[in-house]
Amino acid sequence: MSDVNIKITDREGVTHDVVAPTDMSMNLMEIIRSYELAEEGTIGVCGGMAMCASCQVYVINDPGLEPMGDEEDAMLGEAFHVKDNSRLGCQLHIADVMEGLEVEIAPYP
C-alpha cells in the first residue's frame, strides 16, 4: 500500500493535511468527499464525469500532474470561478507523483 500527502484548503480557508492511497483507483474529488472537506451535495455533483465542475480546485503546488484532457478543458471553459491553475478533482487520479500536491477547493457556483 502506497500513500501520498496532499494539502487541501477547503472553501472556508482551512488547510487540511490528508493522506491519499495510490492503490485504490481514487481521484482527488473522492478524497475530498471521503475527508468531508466540502459540504454534502456541493462536490462531485455529476459523479466524477467531468460534466459539472463542482470539484474544481486551484493547484497551488504542482509536483507533476498529468496534462489536462480535452473533456476537462471543455468543462472548465464553461465553468464559473475558473483561473489559470484550475483543474477538475475528478480528473486527477491519485498517483505517486502527487506527493506534495497542494490545492484549494474553488467556490461552489
From TrEMBL:
Keywords: 2Fe-2S, Iron, Iron-sulfur, Metal-binding. SUPFAM superfamilies: 2Fe-2S ferredoxin-like (SSF54292). One of its GO terms (biological process) is P450-containing electron transport chain. GO terms for molecular function: 2 iron, 2 sulfur cluster binding; electron transfer activity; metal ion binding. This is Ferredoxin. It comes from Chryseobacterium sediminis.
